[in-house]
């Protein structure tokens, strides 16, 4: 069957509310290490036979079935390299990562060295997928980073921080932050490299990495889009031939002591050409997203992301680092054949006020060219718990799982996860992976990332690693431990219909409903042999079906079963559809129900109204809903109203009256006037005496708000001869908000307004993220200090905005 059919199955899935059994066990702990630090950085990957975990400078593998460790104690990564005579890789202090190359079934580990001023990136690729094999060997490589990193104005090499690896068919892709050691390790730029995967897998001589540094000329200020994450392939289906690799990174709010939100992230397209490196490219775009505030964001100190409380905080004053200033690995990629999916997540503020509650924002990108945002959401199912340090992935059925840390004033730092189905947009279901037991009382340092991966064998089992504290960590102690867990989402990998129940609502006796579809998905790794479809139950004769299944269904494919309802009498009617095949759980069943009616029916069209983006306080154009009496008698209408979460943001007028004759229609006009920014929703409800009352129409809209940033906010023209005009100076006006900026006027006012003149290309409106230029000249009419101001009047909150002007006539 076509992959599209499989997607239809997913869209119809009716999933249970919780995940299946969660298995977990302790991974690397501080007690096992000779050099434990406070930065845990728990990450890992699941392979064909083991789970390999990496923390600090140590790694350990565990059997996937018994959870038994492969080695007696965790191994230091430096040994992998020094055993091959690579002395340059003998000093590694942390920031290591491990990935499983699913396209080649090989393990990959990488880390940077820590000798000040002389840096290498050390990468090892295994020759087997079995870490217990007596023939296990690591192909090791050291990459001199100094010529790639560059130096700061003081001549010191930038520090290579927070490196991340991703698997793609044409390369292993590496992202590194450039930190200025003379500015307290400030992130001032990034480095992105393609490493020669082909020769590294073969153990041959690797070609020189192809790298791009950004910005090309580093200004020394904080780079707002730091900490890139390269795409990493999940599943066994590679990207289409020639598909470029992509990286993502956050775009932090502009640092102006005022702005706390951002409405974009960075998407980087890396095309590598090993035969002609001059053809390699690295390009950036900035997709727009719903406004967000990074977790624990402070306008006075944006680099400080420490605000997560724990029960001991009220006594110790110690909070946990949310690492909210960057996106969190992984950028999980999966090729479903019919479409490609990229997933990533990060920590955002969900409470009101600085350092308030944090939650998890996630995104899915799709598209065969440059991927675009397809879906997004925010995980914060309560008003108290802080969620942070997320990692995300998806299984073969497009079920998403995201793991994260969770803590609060009465909750010890523990580990939780959520899952949901993407195509059907089911609500996230949160569950506990491992409860918090104790607190980290002696430091704000926490790990910088965690990892969620999917078993490459069954493509259903999620594996996740994170940290917790078995006892309070106090004084100079290190008591942390890591926890490794696995679980599956229900219905992955088995033969199942979805949805497993169909409700037809009201239908006139003797008439046939429109078909409803349930999909039969073969999640087995073999062909499913289908023997037939039958109906059983009290009213089995009221239902019928046609299907596209045939007699066999290939592994991993789905077929459609179209069911109709023709009631033979009034009242509630029910039956069961039985799907008979050679699966162990045959027959699979679908519950069917409907109501036979005598003729009072209305139809409402459309069933949803989406008003898109509208500026706060502005009323949208009216959209109409048509109500039609499709029954055999007049319908009495008792009420038409708007209810729901944001009912006050929507209004309606109608010409329906109290009765609607047979075949007659009436119109309800609905308008949207958002009171705040963000997604707004309500329900238009029509109450009457027809079947299915009240009929409902879902209303959605998005409140937007423009915001103005002026740069600079002061123009000083210095001395200028009276009667002569200066050269122009420019002010850049940028709409940093989420709504269109409408400009009423741009004028010069003040004591000496006549001495200054302006021209601009702003027009009457500026789109979100766009900029325009105001050009100002100074022609003094008298000697001495002359002052005025540019005043911009618009629909932003802080209107009018002002740029002060000054100069001296001579």
In short:
By secondary structure, this protein is mainly beta. It is 4% helix and 50% strand.
Radius of gyration: 31 Å
Distance between the termini: 83 Å
Estimate the helix proportion, in percent.
under 10%
Low-confidence stretches: 1-19
Largest sheet: 9 strands, mixed
- The average pLDDT is 92
In terms of DSSP E residues, the strand content is over 45%
Number of strands: 58
3D shape: globular
Number of helices: 5
Structural class: mainly beta
List the helices and strands and how they pair.
Blueprint: H1 3-12, E1 23-29, E2 43-46, E3 50-55, E4 58-63, E5 75-76, H2 78-82, E6 97-101, E7 106-112, E8 120-126, E9 138-144, H3 146-149, E10 159-168, E11 171-180, E12 186-195, H4 197-202, E13 210-214, E14 229-233, E15 245-250, E16 262-271, E17 281-285, E18 288-292, E19 306-308, H5 313-316, E20 320-321, E21 327-335, E22 340-349, E23 358-366, E24 372-379, E25 386-394, E26 399-408, E27 411-421, E28 429-434, E29 451-454, E30 462-468, E31 481-487, E32 495-498, E33 501-508, E34 516-522, E35 528-536, E36 543-547, E37 552-553, E38 558-565, E39 571-581, E40 588-597, E41 602-605, E42 608-615, E43 623-629, E44 635-643, E45 650-654, E46 659-660, E47 665-672, E48 678-688, E49 695-704, E50 708-711, E51 714-720, E52 729-735, E53 741-749, E54 756-760, E55 765-766, E56 771-778, E57 784-794, E58 801-809
């Amino acid at each position: 069957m076509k992959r599209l059919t499989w997607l239809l199955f997913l869209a119809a899935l009716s999933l249970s509310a919780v995940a299946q059994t969660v298995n977990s066990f302790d991974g690397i702990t501080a007690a096992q290490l000779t050099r434990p630090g406070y930065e845990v950085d728990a990450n890992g990957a699941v392979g064909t036979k083991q789970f390999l975990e990496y923390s600090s400078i140590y790694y350990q593998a565990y059997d996937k079935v018994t959870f038994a460790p492969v080695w007696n104690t965790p191994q230091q990564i430096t040994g992998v390299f020094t055993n091959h005579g690579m002395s340059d890789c003998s000093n590694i202090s942390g920031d290591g990562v491990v990935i499983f190359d699913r396209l080649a079934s090989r393990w990959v580990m990488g880390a940077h060295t820590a000798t000040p001023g002389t840096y290498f990136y050390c990468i090892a690729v295994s020759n087997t997928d079995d870490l217990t094999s007596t023939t296990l060997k690591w192909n090791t490589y050291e990459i001199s980073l100094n010529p790639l990193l560059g130096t700061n104005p003081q001549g010191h090499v930038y520090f290579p921080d927070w490196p991340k690896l991703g698997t793609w068919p044409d390369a292993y892709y590496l992202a590194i932050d450039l930190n200025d050691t003379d500015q307290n390790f400030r992130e001032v730029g990034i480095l992105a490299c393609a490493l020669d995967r082909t020769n590294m897998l073969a153990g041959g001589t690797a070609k020189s990495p192809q790298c791009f540094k950004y910005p090309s000329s580093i200004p020394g200020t904080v780079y707002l889009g730091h900490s890139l994450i390269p795409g990493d392939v999940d599943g066994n289906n590679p990207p289409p031939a020639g598909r470029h690799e992509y990286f993502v990174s956050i775009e932090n709010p502009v640092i102006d002591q005022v702005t706390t939100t951002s409405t974009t992230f960075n998407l980087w397209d890396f095309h590598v050409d090993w035969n002609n490196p001059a053809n390699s490219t690295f390009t950036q775009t900035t997709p727009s997203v719903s406004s967000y505030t990074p977790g624990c964001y402070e306008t006075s100190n944006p680099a400080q992301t420490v605000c997560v409380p724990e029960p001991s905080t009220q006594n110790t004053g110690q909070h946990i680092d949310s690492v909210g200033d960057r996106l969190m690995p992984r950028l999980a990629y999966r090729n479903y054949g019919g479409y490609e999916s990229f997933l990533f997540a990060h920590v955002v503020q969900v409470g009101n006020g600085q350092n308030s509650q944090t939650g998890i924002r996630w995104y899915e990108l799709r598209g065969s060219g440059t991927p675009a945002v397809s879906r997004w959401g925010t995980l914060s199912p309560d008003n108290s718990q802080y969620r942070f340090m997320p990692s995300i992935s998806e299984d073969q059925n497009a079920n998403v799982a995201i793991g994260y840390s969770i803590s609060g004033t009465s909750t010890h730092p523990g580990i939780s996860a959520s899952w949901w189905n993407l195509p059907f947009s089911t609500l996230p279901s949160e569950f506990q992976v491992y409860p918090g037991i104790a607190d980290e009382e002696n430091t704000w340092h926490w790990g910088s990332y965690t990892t969620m991966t999917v078993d490459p064998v069954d493509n259903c089992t999620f594996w996740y690693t994170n940290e917790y504290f078995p006892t309070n960590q106090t004084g100079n102690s290190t008591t942390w431990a890591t926890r490794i867990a696995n679980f599956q989402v229900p219905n992955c990998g088995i033969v199942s219909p979805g949805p497993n129940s169909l409700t037809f609502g009201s239908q006139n006796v003797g008439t046939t409903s429109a078909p409803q579809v349930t999909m039969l998905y073969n999640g087995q790794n073999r062909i499913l042999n289908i023997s037939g479809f039958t109906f059983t139950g009290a009213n089995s004769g009221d239902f019928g079906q046609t299907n596209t299944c045939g007699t066999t269904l290939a592994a991993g494919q789905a077929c459609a079963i179209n069911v109709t309802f023709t009631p033979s009498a009034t009242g509630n009617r029910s039956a069961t559809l039985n799907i008979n095949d050679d699966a162990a759980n045959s027959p699979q069943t679908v519950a069917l129900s409907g109501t036979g009616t005598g003729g009072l029916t209305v139809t409402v069209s459309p069933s949803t109204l989406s008003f898109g983006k509208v500026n706060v306080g502005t009323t949208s154009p009216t959209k109409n809903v048509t109500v039609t009496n499709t029954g055999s008698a007049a319908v009495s209408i008792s009420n038409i109203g708007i209810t729901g979460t944001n009912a006050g943001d929507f209004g309606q007028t109608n010409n329906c009256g109290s009765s609607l004759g047979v075949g007659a229609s009436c119109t309800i006009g609905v308008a949207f006037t958002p009171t705040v920014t963000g997604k707004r929703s309500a329900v238009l409800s029509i109450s009457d005496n027809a079947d299915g009352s009240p009929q409902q129409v879902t209303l959605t809209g998005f409140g937007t708000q423009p915001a103005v940033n002026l740069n600079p906010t002061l123009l000083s023209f210095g001395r200028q001869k009276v009667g002569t005009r200066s050269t122009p100076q420019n002010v850049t006006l940028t709409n940093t908000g989420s709504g269109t900026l409408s400009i009423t006027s741009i004028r010069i006012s003040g004591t000496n307004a006549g001495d200054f003149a302006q021209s601009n290309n702003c027009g009457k409106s500026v789109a979100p993220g766009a900029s325009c230029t105001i050009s100002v000249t100074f022609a003094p009419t008298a000697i001495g200090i002359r002052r005025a101001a540019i005043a911009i009047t618009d629909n932003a909150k802080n209107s009018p905005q002002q740029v002060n002007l000054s100069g001296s006539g001579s």
